[in-house]
Amino acid sequence: MAIDTTTNVTDTRATLNGRVNAQGEATNYAFQYGTTTDYGQQTRLVALPADAGERAVTTELDGLVPGTDYNVRVIASNASGTEVSANATFRTTGTAPAPTPRPSVTTGSAVASLSTATLTGTVNPQGRETVYYFEFGETANYGQQTAPQNAGSGATNVSVQAALSGLRTDATYNYRLVAVGPNGSIATGENRTFTTGGSASTMLSFFGHTSFTDQNGVGGVFLGCFGAVQCRGGMTLERSGKLLGERKAYTIRANNGGIVHITLNDLGKRLLRQRGAMNVRTTVLNENGQRVTGTTKLIRYSTNGLKG
After folding, report:
1. Disulfide check for 132: which of 155, 179, 207, 251 has CB 3.0–4.6 Å away?
2. Ramachandran region of residue 215, left (φ > 0), alpha (ψ -120 to 50) or beta?
C-alpha cells in the first residue's frame, strides 16, 4: 500500500494516486490528508472486491488552500484490521493566505453500550464559521468518521456530540474530535478510547414468577440486569399465542433490577377481568439479541376489579 504520485496540482485541487492490496478480503479504503501528520480530513470510503491483487486507487481533492504543504496517506480496513501507507507530501500552487485563527477542540467522554456509543466534546470556533466531526476506529489510525456538523461562528466553547451505531461488541475503539475552520484550518483533539459491551457480559433474569396489574390494566414485571452494561430492549405478554400487552422499549441499569411497566391491551384487560389471575407467556429482549422467555402469573392487585 502506497501513495505513488500527486498530479494535477493547482491552487485548490490535486489528484492523489496510490495502490492498495486487499489480500483476498473485502476491503474499504480512503485517503487521509491535512497540513500536519495528524491529517484531520479523509475522503469517502471506497469498497474494493475481495481479491489478492494490488489495485491502483485515485481520488480528487478540492477546497485546498493555495501555497500550502499537505501530508497524505492511504488507509485501508478489512476484517483482518486497518493498515496505513507511509506519509507523502505535496504543495499547492499559488500564494498562501494570511494566517487565520484556528478553532480549538477538546475530545470529551463516550458512553457505550453493546453496539452503539455517544461521543462528546467541545469546540471553540474562535469567531469563524467552523464544522466538526469525530474520527473513530479500532486503532489510532481511525478509518471512519461521523458526518460533519456546524459548530457556528462564536468565540466560546460549544458542547458537541455524535451517535455511533453498528459497532462490534467486546471491542475497544479509538476516537477524537476534529474541527475545520476557514481556509482549511484544522484542530484535532486528543485520542481517547471506549469499549463496547459483549453478549456474554450481561444477562437478563426474572425476579420470581409473578407479574401484576392494577384495575386499569397498568402493571409490570420484575426483571434483573446482571453484568457490565445496561439492558435495553422490549417485552411482550401473550396467552395462547395472542398478544395481551407490549412494551416497546425499556432500560435497566447494569447490575440492577426493577419493574418494567407494561399496559394490557383490550384483550388482556378483558381476560384478566374475567379471571382475576392467569398465567401468561412473558418474553423479554435485550438489545444484543438475548431473549428470555418464561411463564409468569399475572395477578390483579386491586380489589375494585378492572374498569372499562
Report:
1. 179
2. alpha
